[in-house]
Amino acid sequence: MTKNNKYSATNSSLSAFSWSDIMLLCSNGGLDGAAENQLKKTMIQAFVDSHYPGKITQIGGNSKYKKDMWRARYYEDGKRKEFTCREKDDVYLKLYEYYKEKENSSRTLEAVFDMLKEYKTNQLNRSESTINNDESLFRELSEELRKSSIADISTDKISNWIRTEYLTRIPKESRFKKTMHLLDQIFEYGIGQKICATNPMKGISMDLYVKDCDITKKADEEKLFSEEEIDKLLDYAQKHADNPRALLMMFCCYTGIRVGEAVAIHIEDISDTFVHIHRQQVRGKDEGKITFTEVPYTKNERQHPNDGRYVPLLDDSKKVIELAKQIFGDSKYLFHDPDSDEMVTKDSYMKYLCRACKKLECQATNNHAFRIAFNSELIEMGFSSADRALILGQSVQTNEKYYSKSDKRRLEGIRSRMAAYEKEQEG
What we know:
There is one protein chain. The chain is mainly α. It folds into three domains: 14-105, no CATH class; 109-210, Orthogonal Bundle (DNA polymerase, domain 1); 221-412, Orthogonal Bundle (hpI Integrase, Chain A). It has 18 helices and seven strands. It has helices at 19-27, 33-51, 88-105, 109-122, 128-138, 143-147, 155-166, 173-192, 207-210, 227-239, 244-255, 259-262, 315-325, 346-359, 368-381, 385-392, 396-403, 411-426, and strands spanning 57-58, 70-76, 79-85, 274-277, 280-286, 289-295, 309-312. Strands 1-2-3 form a three-stranded antiparallel β-sheet. The protein has a two-stranded antiparallel ribbon with strand order 4-7. Strands 5-6 form a two-stranded antiparallel sheet. The radius of gyration is 31 Å and the shape is elongated. Strand 5 and strand 6 form a beta hairpin.
């Protein structure tokens, strides 16, 4: 067992060891021939005894061909079958191979990934978003890899898939690295649970493959809406104000809040001067179906809820609120479809926003671009990074690193202001 493997199983019984473990021990010269054979025999018997419910018996009576042979009967697909051998140890070996094959078929890479997801959810308290991201990365793998027994996957097999299939899609460097990291996690979990003996990812050097990935990065202008794009989006939304998703566009633009927070706003969260942001909508699965539920914490307070934050309301955002309150129906949510008491789903809003952005030929196509543009506006107003972080619901470090962007499209305006300042000084 790997000493520092955080996924390690606590079962230390003899049957917990795999055949690969024994072969590894033997190949390292830790046992002489007789001791090696005895250990293998003991391991096989322990494994069979933990899986085979019947008894291995010796055939007697008048059987002409099978007299004194050893037999083990079992059922498969409702039919009785049996293994018969001259030596009892050989019956044990056949039963071992039979149950090992059945066990390995249920311990595919995909099956172990499902176990890892459950462990992350229940033991590590990972968010639904993290699990969804893992599922998205896992879908990058070929069906052959996903359906392969995890114990049979080698470094060469993974390397061949990377070169002949994955890199042909020219993935982003960051996505490539995240996919490799997930694979490494799956194998480490498998080792900890005694499902596999080695981690083939240890032989994968990512530096050899990164050069064939898409290493281009978005310019700052592609991450936030320009002033012209915001004007076009607001004009578009105002023309479709009967749709709560259009109202959401305007509200997110004026407040810079996350879409998951916006769709979960209750009417009671709104005062004359602030909106209390202390809930969010999360995406999940129930029996294979996508679900959207409300949780009583925001993204940055998931681990330590602290009653959320308060976002200032100005005239523009207040007008949007009044329009949203006029939506027909009796719902506690500010943004809901007519005759529905359910909140608008963030997926439906993101699709609506993306279509609008493409129609209006905006470079960015997501709600995050509103948050970054809003932060840029706060910078221009002179607010400190601490104030901006307080309004946007994030750490100061996050605000400085990911939200403070330069926009070359503003250069002409900057030049005009500089020229005006120069004239003022000359006068």
